[in-house]
Amino acid sequence: MAKWFRSEPMEYISIIINEDASHDCLADLGKLGVMQFTDLNPDLTPFQRRYVSYVKRCDELERKIRYFSSEIDKFDLECASTGTVDQFLDSNNPHVSSTGEASNGKLLETLEVDLEVHESQLRELNSYSEKLTVEYNEKVELQEVYEKARYFFMTDAPRLASSEHMRFSFLTGVVSTEECIRFERMVFRTTRGNCYVRFAPIQQPITDPATGKLLEKSVFIVFYKSQAIEAKLKKICDAFQAHRYSIPDMDDATSVESMLTENAQDLVDSRTVLLKNQDTRYRLCQKISQHLERWSWIVLREKAIYHSLNMFKADVAGMLRGEGWVATENLLELREAVERAHSNMDMGMPSHVDHVPQPWPTPPTHFVTNKFTYAYQEFVNTYGIPRYREANPALFTAATFPFLFGVMYGDIGHGTFLFLAGIIGVWNEKKNEGVKHDELSEALHTARYMLLMMGFFAIYAGLIYNDCFSLGLNLLQSRWVFEGQDYGTVDEGAVASSTTDYGSDESVYPFGLDPIWHVTSNELLFFNSFKMKMSVIFGILQMFMGTCIRGLNAVYFGEKIDLFFEVLPMMVFSASLFVYMVILIFMKWTINWQERMLSATYKCPLNYGGSGDGCQPPNLITTLINIALAPGTVEEPMYFGQAYIQNILLLCAVASVPVLLLAKPYFISQQTHTPVHHHDEDLPLYTDDHDRSGGGGEEHDFSEVVIHQGIETIEFVLGMISNTASYLRLWALSLAHSELATVFWEKCMLSTLNMNSFVYCYFGFAVFAGVTTGVLLMMDVLECFLHALRLHWVEFQGKFYKADGVRFHPYSFKQVIKDSDN
């Protein structure tokens, strides 16, 4: 854990490699994934880079792979798995051509030939399939037109003739079913009602040759009497993309039957050819799917290599120079990989890996995490990346976040469900690793250990509260009893009696709160007092810890001015008012007030002053208010000299504010007469090719330092008050959770149990389970999670965390492939 406290020490190095061995060298470095390259050609556009042609070739290969993927999806085929990324990277033959020969040095050429052959075959088949589909659809539509028109002339046509010598012309075709109403309305308006339109739906959907989707279509027949109307009807058909078909005179039954038979035979032949084409495309896509994922990973790897090589600089012909960051512990491994790549190529010119003299660019921040710590590190990184070698809040968050969540969500029953969810996630982690999930499932898999700890601390807090689905558990025998409670005859307003002597060790419930509190009339008053004080204690201790971590950062970076004139005044201010409040709370809890009050039958012998002389329990809120508003006045003191001590603490708190405000700017101005560097806020900045003529730091004049320190002072002083109040959300959320659980139990279960009916109990339990799952196991978990998140991001991390670091992005094939899958 000490290693997780501060980021990995980084080295800025320079690599000089032979251009002929650059590809193999970068391939080995990509497998290691330990170096982040710096762009040494920032002035060049992407099209001016040395290896832009190779990147374009990779882009073209990616386009082809995307085309293959879309075609494979049309047949609902699954791509064959290449295995894990580690297995792919460890394989000696990264690509094997269709002829079975390893491509080795001509990887892109071999891959381009294979993909070009497959693409040309697939495009030719698709083009042919589209033509066949158009022809097949035309024959299907013509067959339907023949059949629907013949049926219409047999049934409805005789009604159209007003005399033996009058005959109407007609127009037939096929239009989309969803356009029928609009088509009929347009015909009616255009011809002023001088047409007779009939529709008949086609039972078999028609395949769209362009998209492959199935469309519902209908046959239409329009009767009219004028050639002018015929011209208008043809324009309307073109506008609605309706296919028009010419059919012979329906009176000649023999001719119509012959045409139907001939078209039906053509239809069978077209379908046979179409199915043959579809089968050929299916087999080709099936063959491609066996290699698609591997091809994709190879292209991603090659593209990453050439992108990285574009960051190198060619200072000498035949040699490339690159610079970047590497963790100190990986430097030897990196040097061995570079030398191995050159030795395998039998290069006469050796490689060179060396440190770059300072000043460096801003070092990136890198933490080595595992399955447990990864989620907490991402939790912190979402707010901001830690500075290089700054204290890592994730180390403390791993313990305090699930604990504060448990304080708000404390319930044995509900916590058990959350704990089991974490157990299931941990149990199935190997099964879920390497499997593509949706965004929610991936987040739950990543946070499986966090859920486990959240459930554990929720159970722990539930044991402290003695709360299980809003019910108290008498596991260790309550120390209080009501008269007649065994027979259910307790009267309203009855007073419980202790089963042991007051003040003895046996009178204290062994663990957590006595379950008797859940059935008392002053239950809410007691739990409110307990949880409110507990929230204040946890909040002040966590914020004070954050201030102490700020001091550790100042000591580590050698910032003496920050330590003595910023951190120490902050600690004095916090301890004088807020830590002292915590001490008073514990003192009030530990003092035997019954003994003190009994000793003051006539007069309190303690003589501490005030109205009670120390024998009456004080109101802590009044005591704390009087520290600032009535110095030297303590109505109900708890110890001798409390007023004097509180005056000293108030004086220390007030004196620390001007020190915090003015001391640091003054001493910074005394250090130099030139514009001063505000070291607490800025690290050296990157300049192209390092511009090593001087240190890179943002400069501030004295007025800016004073203004910044004034903002810092106001934010801290007011923040300590507001942040302490913010921690009361621990009490509020815990109270809301327990009260909701109580309402659900009483209204859903208890009321139905009193009805003495199995049916009512069955439905009551169903409602109880539903609202418990939806509200308490889902909504309330999210609510408590977000509030705990805010307490860490604002109240805790705000005391010391700068969050302006640069994340370490190593050149890693594994990460490139993982990002592409997401």
Summarize the SSE layout with pairings.
Elements: H1 2-5, E1 10-18, H2 22-32, E2 35-38, H3 52-74, H4 85-90, H5 107-155, E3 169-176, H6 180-190, E4 196-201, E5 206-207, E6 214-215, E7 217-224, H7 227-239, E8 243-245, H8 253-289, H9 292-309, E9 313-316, E10 319-327, H10 331-344, E11 352-355, H11 373-381, H12 393-409, H13 412-427, H14 429-432, H15 439-446, H16 448-465, E12 480-481, E13 497-498, H17 523-556, H18 560-590, H19 593-599, H20 620-629, H21 642-671, E14 676-677, E15 699-700, H22 702-726, H23 729-753, H24 758-796, H25 813-821
Helix pairs in contact: 2-9, 2-10, 3-5, 3-8, 3-9, 5-8, 6-7, 9-25, 11-12, 12-16, 12-23, 12-24, 13-16, 17-18, 17-22, 17-23, 18-21, 21-22, 23-24
Organism: Fragilariopsis cylindrus CCMP1102
Function: Essential component of the vacuolar proton pump (V-ATPase), a multimeric enzyme that catalyzes the translocation of protons across the membranes. Required for assembly and activity of the V-ATPase.
Protein name: V-type proton ATPase subunit a
Question: How is this structure best described in words?
Answer:
- The protein is α+β, with helices and mostly antiparallel strands and 822 residues long.
- It is 57% helix and 8% strand.
- The protein contains 25 helices and 15 strands.
- Helix 17 (523-556) packs antiparallel against helix 23 (729-753).
- The two termini are 30 Å apart.
- The model is unreliable at 93-105 and 674-699 (pLDDT under 50).
- InterPro entries: V-ATPase_116kDa_su, V-type_ATPase_116kDa_su_euka.
